[in-house]
Every structure is written in C-alpha cells, then in structure tokens.
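User: Predict the complex with magnesium ion.
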Amino acid sequence: MSVVSIIGHKGGVGKTTLSINIAAAITKAIHSSNIDEPVCLLDLDLRLPTITEILNSHPQKTFFNLFELLANSTYQLDFLQNLYQILIPFKEYKTGAIAKENPRLLKSIAKYKNLNEELFNNAEFEFGDQIHELFLMRGEIERPSDLKRRNVTQLFNRIDINKFKNTLRECEGSARADINDYISYIEEYGFSILGGEVPILGKKKHRQRINEPEFLVLFIEFIQEVCEKFKHVILDTPAGGVNHLSSIMNSIDQILFVFDVSNTVAVKGSIDSIHTFMDYYEDFYENYKNGLLTGMDKTYVDRLIVSRGGKAVEQALETKKMCIVFNRSQKINEVTQSLDQLREYLDTLGKYEKYRDRIYLVGLIPNNKVINITNNRGSLFYGKDKKLTYRIDSIAKNIIDPNINSPTLANSNKEIISFLEKKSTLGFRKTYSRIASSLS
Ligand SMILES: Nc1ncnc2c1ncn2[C@@H]1O[C@H](COP(=O)(O)OP(=O)(O)OP(=O)(O)O)[C@@H](O)[C@H]1O
Ligand SMILES: [Mg+2]
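Assistant: Here is the predicted structure with magnesium ion placed in the model:
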C-alpha cells in the first residue's frame, strides 16, 4: 500500500493537476500488468475542493455530507455524554454515596440547568419518558436538596441508568460513516475519487468543528479507513499542508512536494514548505520514539499500529520518503538553481547531511499548453501528449516501485537532470511486470 500526499506551499503550483495525472498513470500501470489494485484520488483540500469539478464528476455524497454527519454525530454524542455525566452524580447523591457539597454534584446541577433544549428536542435517539420528564424539571431543581423531593425520587426510581449507558455506547459506535457511500468510482478514468464539491471549511461551524478532538478523531478514522481500502491513495493536499491533520501527514508513506520553478518567489515558498514539514515530522517522530505522543497523534498512531503492526509503522516513520517534482519548467537552469538553493537552505539549518539521501528528485514537468487549457479542462493531460505521459509515468513508477533508484539531493545536478529528462520509461514497464509477477 502507498499513501502519497501531494503538497505545495501555495495556490496554483500544480498540486491538483499532478494528483489527477499521477492517479491516472498509476491506474494505467496497474491495469497494464493486470493486477486489480484500486487507486483512489482524495481531495483533501477542504477549503476549495476542485477535483470533482475538473473531472466532471458529481458524487452523491461529498465531504460536505460527511462533515454534516460527523458533526451531527459528535453533537449528539456530546449531548448524550453530558446527560450521562449529570445522571451519575444525581444517582450517587440520592443513594448517599456522595454528599451535597460534592463538587461533581454541584457541577452536574449547573450542567443540568444549562442543557441545550434544541439539541434535546432534535436528538435522534429515544431518551425515554423518564429522561424527558427530568429534562422538563429543570425549573424546579436549583440545589442538591431539591433532588431529594418525592416526585424527583419517584422519577429516579424509574430511570434505568444501565439502559441509558447502553444507548450511549451504541451511539458511540454508530458515529462512524460508511466509507462506501462517499467513494465514487469513475469508469472513464478507472480510479475512484473522494472529496467534496462544496468548500467544507467555508462554513464557520465546520471550521470550528474540525479543530475539536472528537470530531477530528472521527474524520481521521474515516481517512484512515479509506487508506486501508485502497492499494494506492493520492492525497491532493491543500496549500500550506493540513495543520489539523498533521497526524495523517506524519504517518503516510510518501510526501511529494511540488516545486513551481516558473518564478523565484514560488521556489522560495516551496523550500519553506519542506522546512515546515521537516519540523512537524521531526517533532512527531521524536515524540513517537519516546512514547510522548498525545491526543490525536497518539490515537492515530495507535490505530495504525493495530492495523499495520508496530514494526511497519516504525519503519514507515523512519524511512519516510520525501520527493520533489519540478513543475512548469521552461529552462533547465531554473531546476539547477532550485536544487542549489534547497541544498544551501538545508545546510544553513544544519539539516543537509541528515536529509540529502532522503529527498528524492522524481519528476520534471515542463510548462506546457496541453496542461494549461483554460478552466482546468486540460488538467487530465495523461495519455494526450507522449512526452508528458512519459514524465508522469516516471513519477508514478517512483511511487509504486520501492526499488526504484531516483536520484537524491546527494547526487550532482548533472546526474539529477539527466535522470529527470530521460525520454523513455520502458524500464518502468519491465520493473513493474517484475514486481507484478513476484506478487502473484
Ligand atoms: N506544467 C504546467 N504547465 C502549464 N500549466 C500548468 C502546469 N501545471 C499546472 N498548470 C496550470 O496551473 C493552474 C493551477 O494548477 P492546479 O489547480 O493544479 O494548482 P493547485 O496547486 O492545485 O492550486 P490550488 O492551491 O488552488 O489548489 C491550472 O490552470 C493548471 O492547468
Ligand atoms: Mg488544487
């Protein structure tokens, strides 16, 4: 399995264009060797998803629906959990297990008085008449002694806390989305896509929700399930990375940085995005090794370990592959200059020695009008132009073949350029067939 994130520091460097074409190239390579290994192209750009639009595909359910579902589930769950946290101290007080000054009890009374009526009325589950009655009694209960009143006691005798607990557990279990509802297979291209047509994070409530841990856990679990289902997943990752999804970024196999070499400002930005990524990654890996991961990161890695095994996760983290694709190149010296600039920058940071063998140079895509047909309609250029197709094939080969020898920053500029400019990818097909036969 490979999960690849296509990253670029700013808008318009070609992330989406490359993601789509790489997905097409991998699909073609797989089909040509008759292996049924599905490819999924995932639009992680939650602010401005474009893939479905570019590919003219209209999935029934998009990330927008997913967010609505997850948001709803987490709200409902929050509410149910709140109720549970109210009922328990009430009950304990009534049985004499805690005193009237108990802070937990006082807190639960305050919580009870503030229960959100709208959420209660719109809840999807049956609370039962008793809980409803309790809810309606909010005006009568001000202090612990009010709980000892006869009508309240009678009501409490009828409330089955265990039953309530079971409802809560059930709800926790059903907050998950069925990933099959969200994946659309596009016959024409032979791969699946996933993502929204509607900008999800344009909505204020979605922007808020994605930073809430319960919500994020559900969303990340969803993404991880997708990654497990497919052989190759290409993530079109928004400009600047996805901070709230750093667990995903840190745990996936390969990162592919897109360098727009058509102007120097863009190159500087791309270099900076590698730096930002390294900082994230180093912190994450250090914390992982020292058992210091917390919160989301820990939850996510623990899940990965369960599904892939500790060794595989450790190895994926240790050998995480960072690749660079140069896009929009017109003159070769733009590429050599970018390479020198990157080496110098890493050297200044004291990171060159550490990373020079781990940063692979895997692709060079010229600035080409076949790609830049207005309104993105030219974005799927794979298969339409021989030279471009070769270039994309060699990027795809780098992704799916772990044994491929792409040059790294440690190679000379001359070696790098001659690799990136090579005309044919015949070796690719051969290598792939070899892997294919070893797998079958
Ligand atoms: N090599 C290229 N040659 C010519 N045009 C290109 C090339 N790569 C990308 N483009 C064009 O540049 C524009 C932006 O590309 P794209 O949408 O892929 O960028 P992006 O990084 O995904 O942007 P965003 O951050 O907005 O999502 C598109 O119109 C695309 O056709
Ligand atoms: Mg894009």
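The first helix runs from residue 15 to 32.
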